[in-house]
């Protein structure tokens, strides 16, 4: 959704009555707070005149108690009202950001740093929340407290003393603003330094075996020490700014108090004001210091808020490139006939075509295998079928419909896809397999696991299907992750299934077992298998060989072996490698002799 107006303003307008109520409650508490100095005045003057008696003392104590309790009740409820609204802004904005990101295409994420996205979701939203919480609260407090306190000081005690004492205080606002900016930039550097240290530790933990095998411990310690040193350096700058700010503001506040005490005492001695006035005046002054300092902080916060608001609105106004377009046919099911016609494709930020003039027909229920060198365009082709990138119009058809006219939801729920990277979520194995929102029965999960040849591995885990996987499923081996991904695709009752190099991390025995079960699982389903291994794809109904984005060979395993092309070369190379490995392996007879000798 495009946001034309600043986010906080929109939120404020939407919840204005809650903010008004919060403001009224807070203002009542401030008025009650400002009642205290006048009670103090009456008490002090009473003591000085010796006119105070027990019942008056009791009465004053009552008023003090009422002022205290009232301040507490109204301040807390005003705070709850205002702060609750800001928490709602935070919650709604994060949900809006998240659901917007979900709509954006894969390409968007390839051009963004994850760190930036995290900053939008965490820091920028926090800043907007702070404007609603501390920012709004402190502005109301400053406006009400300063105006009323100054009015009381000047109107009921002494105008000139008030002007004199207030003279240095705008300096407090100024330095709070200036230093806040400086402190902010130092804090940012400290955060960056901590981020670098964290990444270093993270990288160290992940790469520990490489570091050890390359005997790089000393080098790594050196790098860490340098970065640790930089962290100390930026922290020193932060400490310097903080100390200077505290000392300067204390200096200004001290000057105000000094003026108040010296000039106030003179006025008391001259009987221009009473001792009670003097006490009340200094109490008002102490109440003013915080809000005056806060003005500077709030100005700074508003500036940060402006930048955060712009950044968030920029993200929210990024239009998804891949969405249901005009003319989308309301299809809910497809059968699985695929036709690719004159497809040429280049990635959005690269003019060179990575696929050139591709023509393929895959009738429903048949299989297509794609082989080819690294970077020849195999994954791109299947990603276009899923519309992870937009293919040109009228270039890919499913059941005679241009896929750009098939609702995205229908298209993607009709395709089960095992991507190359085998991404697993940090949840249980069961949740990873039954990821498709369809409510799967336990038996279906077990069946998918058996078909993907991962069942016995799962049964050996401590909590079997309920075993929690670590981040990105890293607690499993590469081959196990691959088979969990396959199970996730097999459980999905979709008419089309795609495997992108999905058997690369399993041994040849497991590969044969998986292929045997897949034959049954894929009956009636249109399948596309990408692989570098001929053994995986040789039984496909048709095989294409891609080279630099072009189909250079096509046929069946047998027909391609008759051609003297890339396919045959790959086959010969792989069978020679296999024979070589087999030749290297001792025969059963030789193994028995070896075992005997070892004994
Ligand atoms: N997101 C992208 N943006 C720009 N170019 C890309 C992108 N993804 C892939 N490419 C380029 O497109 C070409 C085809 O890549 P693709 O991943 O389709 O090859 P592949 O045949 O699947 O390779 P592999 O066997 O390594 O998986 C490559 O030159 C690659 O650099």
TrEMBL record:
Instruction: Using the record's annotation, list all stretches that form the ABC transporter domain.
Output: 338-573
Name all ABC transmembrane type-1 domain ranges: 20-304
Instruction: Assign the protein's first listed, main location to one coarse class.
Output: membrane
What GO cellular component is one of the record's annotations?
plasma membrane
Q: How does it sit in the membrane?
A: Multi-pass membrane protein
MF annotations from Gene Ontology: ABC-type oligopeptide transporter activity; ATP binding; ATP hydrolysis activity
Output the Gene3D superfamilies linked to this UniProt entry: ABC transporter type 1, transmembrane domain (1.20.1560.10), P-loop containing nucleotide triphosphate hydrolases (3.40.50.300)
Q: What is this protein called?
A: ABC transporter ATP-binding protein
Regions that span the bilayer:
20-40, 60-82, 136-154
Q: Which UniProt keywords apply?
A: ATP-binding, Cell membrane, Membrane, Nucleotide-binding, Transmembrane, Transmembrane helix, Transport
Provide the leader sequence positions.
none
Q: Which organism is it from?
A: Neobacillus cucumis
Q: Kindly give the InterPro entries that the UniProt entry links to this protein.
A: AAA+_ATPase (IPR003593), ABC1_TM_dom (IPR011527), ABC1_TM_sf (IPR036640), ABC_transporter-like_ATP-bd (IPR003439), ABC_transporter-like_CS (IPR017871), P-loop_NTPase (IPR027417), Type_1_exporter (IPR039421)
């Amino acid at each position: 959704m495009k946001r034309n107006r600043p986010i906080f303003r929109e939120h404020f307008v939407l919840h204005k009555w809650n903010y008004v109520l919060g403001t009224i409650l807070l203002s009542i508490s401030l008025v009650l707070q400002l009642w205290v100095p006048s009670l103090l005045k009456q008490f002090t003057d009473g003591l000085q005149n010796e006119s105070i008696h027990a019942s008056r003392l009791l009465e004053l104590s009552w008023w003090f108690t009422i002022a205290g309790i009232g301040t507490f009740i109204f301040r807390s409820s005003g705070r709850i009202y205002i702060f609750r609204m800001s928490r709602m802004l935070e919650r709604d904005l994060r949900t809006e950001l998240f659901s917007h990101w979900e709509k954006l295409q894969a390409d968007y994420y390839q051009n963004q740093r994850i760190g930036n996205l995290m900053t939008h979701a965490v820091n920028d939203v926090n800043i907007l929340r702070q404007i609603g919480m501390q920012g709004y609260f402190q502005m109301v407090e400053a406006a009400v407290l300063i105006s009323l306190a100054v009015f009381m000081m000047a109107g009921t005690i002494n105008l000139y003393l008030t002007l004199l004492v207030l003279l240095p205080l705008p300096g407090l606002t100024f330095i709070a603003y200036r230093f806040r900016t400086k402190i902010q930039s130092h804090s940012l550097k400290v955060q960056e330094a901590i981020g670098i240290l964290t990444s270093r530790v993270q990288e160290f933990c992940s790469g520990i075996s490489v570091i050890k095998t390359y005997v790089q411990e000393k080098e790594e310690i050196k790098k860490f020490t340098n970065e640790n040193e930089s962290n100390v350096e930026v922290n020193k700058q932060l400490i310097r700014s903080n100390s200077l700010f505290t000392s300067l503001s204390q200096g200004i506040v001290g000057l105000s108090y000094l003026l108040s005490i010296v000039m106030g005492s003179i006025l008391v001695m001259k009987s221009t004001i009473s001792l009670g006035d003097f006490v009340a005046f200094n109490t008002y002054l102490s109440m003013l210091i915080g809000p005056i300092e806060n003005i500077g902080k709030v100005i700074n916060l508003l500036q940060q808020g402006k930048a955060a608001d712009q950044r968030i609105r920029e993200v929210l106004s990024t239009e998804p490139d891949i969405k249901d377009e005009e003319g989308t046919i309301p299809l809910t099911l497809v059968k699985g006939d695929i036709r690719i016609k004159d497809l040429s494709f280049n990635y959005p930020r690269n003019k060179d075509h990575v696929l050139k003039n591709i023509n393929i027909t895959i009738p429903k229920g048949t299989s297509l295998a794609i082989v080819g060198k690294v970077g020849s365009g195999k994954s791109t082709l299947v990603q276009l079928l899923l519309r992870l990138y937009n293919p040109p119009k009228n270039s890919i058809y499913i059941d005679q419909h241009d896929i750009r006219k098939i609702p995205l939801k229908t298209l993607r729920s009709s395709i089960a896809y095992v991507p190359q990277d085998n991404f697993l979520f940090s949840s249980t194995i069961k949740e990873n397999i039954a990821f498709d929102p369809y409510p799967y029965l336990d038996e279906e999960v077990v069946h998918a696991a058996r078909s993907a040849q991962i069942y016995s591995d799962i049964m050996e885990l401590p909590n079997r299907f309920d075993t929690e996987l670590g981040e990105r499923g890293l607690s499993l081996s590469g081959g196990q992750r691959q088979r969990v991904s396959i199970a996730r695709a097999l459980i999905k009752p979709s008419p089309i299934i795609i495997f992108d190099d999905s058997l690369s991390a399993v041994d040849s025995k497991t590969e044969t077992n998986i292929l045997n079960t897949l034959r049954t699982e894929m009956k009636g389903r249109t399948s596309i298998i990408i692989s570098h291994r001929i053994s995986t794809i040789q039984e496909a109904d048709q095989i294409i060989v891609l080279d630099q984005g072009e189909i250079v060979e096509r046929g069946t395993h047998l027909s391609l072996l008759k051609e003297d092309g890339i396919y045959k070369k790959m086959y010969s190379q792989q069978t020679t490698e296999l024979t070589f490995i087999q030749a290297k392996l001792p025969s059963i007879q030789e193994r028995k002799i070896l075992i005997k000798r070892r004994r």
